TrEMBL record:
It comes from Streptomyces smaragdinus. InterPro entries: EamA_dom, EmrE-like. This is EamA domain-containing protein. Keywords: Membrane, Transmembrane, Transmembrane helix. GO terms for cellular component: membrane. The chain crosses the membrane at residues 27-49, 55-76, 88-106, 112-132, 139-157, 169-189, 201-221, 233-251, 258-282, 288-306.
């Protein structure tokens, strides 16, 4: 993968146009990324480990894989040394928001169903749209219609879970908060990736995220490994490979070639993919109303993406 240093060209305005010029290899990588992140929620829900510890280990293990790559490649080392103070600040802020995302979304999987948590976590494009509007970006009417439809789906979904238990409703709230935090992560990451390679950006971002989550675990007294079974460690390794390295990292890789619209649309497949895997593997079969809410949310997000395509203002969201 060619490396791009921060000095080769000035950074364009935040969340500006991105054209899709991807090659077939990008499409294959995109398919791998969607498959990888679809296993994220079911794997987490099946683990006998605290949610915050899972969040820490998936990022720490990813850093352990990426760090040797950077150390062994002179171009990457030079790129990191040459990062401007502004770029480093954006990387740190992006990693901190990713930690908030994980810190909210992962615990939600222990409280509500995989289908509900994943659907609410993928509302990120709606919150990204609102943040862009606050920055002065105008969106097409179709985008706003999609946002309204997606929020209607959120209301349907949370209404169904309210009838199940207050615990499920709390899980919905955490998942929704995770989606909101991810919107900030998206915007900052999109800005950094204009001038910085995938490897350098993800190393910084995952490193900051892991450090923030480690501090949170130590302060809260979260068990980081004592008594973990071999099965738990194996699932943590699988989660790191599938969701972090083949999910987050590949999405950050292909968005530069495929463009935000194609990537965003593909990311929406995580929700039905995770729900299907959870139904088959974990036996989680939510009430029919959950699937109605899921369908409405996905329909709204598709409208957001299609409307954003007309003005090229919708960046792609990250995946849990």
């Amino acid at each position: 993968m060619p490396q791009v240093t921060a000095t080769e060209r000035p950074a364009p305005p935040l969340a500006g146009p991105v054209r899709a010029t991807g090659a077939p290899v990008d499409l294959m990588l995109l398919a791998v990324a969607v498959t990888g992140v679809s296993f994220s929620a079911p794997l987490i829900a099946s683990m006998a480990a605290p949610a915050l510890a899972i969040a820490f280990w998936r990022n720490a293990m990813a850093v352990g894989v990426l760090a040797p790559t950077v150390l062994l490649r002179r171009g990457l080392r030079a790129e990191i040394r040459g990062m401007s103070r502004r770029t480093l600040t954006l990387c740190v802020a992006s990693g901190a928001l990713l930690a908030v995302h994980f810190g909210l979304w992962l615990p939600s999987l222990k409280l509500t169903s995989v289908a509900s948590a994943t659907a609410l976590g993928t509302t990120t494009p709606v919150w990204t749209l609102l943040l862009l509007r606050l920055r002065g970006h105008r969106a097409a009417p179709l985008v706003w219609a999609g946002a309204a439809l997606a929020m209607a789906g959120v209301i349907v979904l949370t209404g169904v879970d309210l009838t199940l238990s207050p615990e499920a409703l709390l899980g919905d709230a955490l998942a929704l908060g995770g989606g909101i935090a991810a919107a900030g992560y998206v915007l900052l990451g999109a800005e950094v990736r204009r001038t910085v390679s995938t490897t350098s950006y993800t190393l910084w971002c995952y490193g900051v995220c892991a450090a923030a989550l480690l501090a949170t675990c130590l302060v809260s007294g979260t068990d980081l490994g004592a008594g973990y079974t071999a099965e738990t460690w194996l699932k943590l390794a699988a989660l790191t490979v599938a969701a972090q390295l083949l999910g987050h990292t590949l999405f950050n890789r292909v968005v530069h070639g495929l463009g935000a619209t194609v990537t965003s649309t593909a990311i929406l497949l995580e929700a039905p993919g995770a729900a299907l895997i959870a139904a088959i593997w974990l036996g989680q079969t939510p009430p029919p109303g959950v699937y109605v809410g899921l369908a409405v949310i996905l329909g709204g997000l598709v409208l957001v993406v299609l409307g954003g395509r007309r003005r090229n203002t919708t960046p792609s969201p990250p995946i849990a």
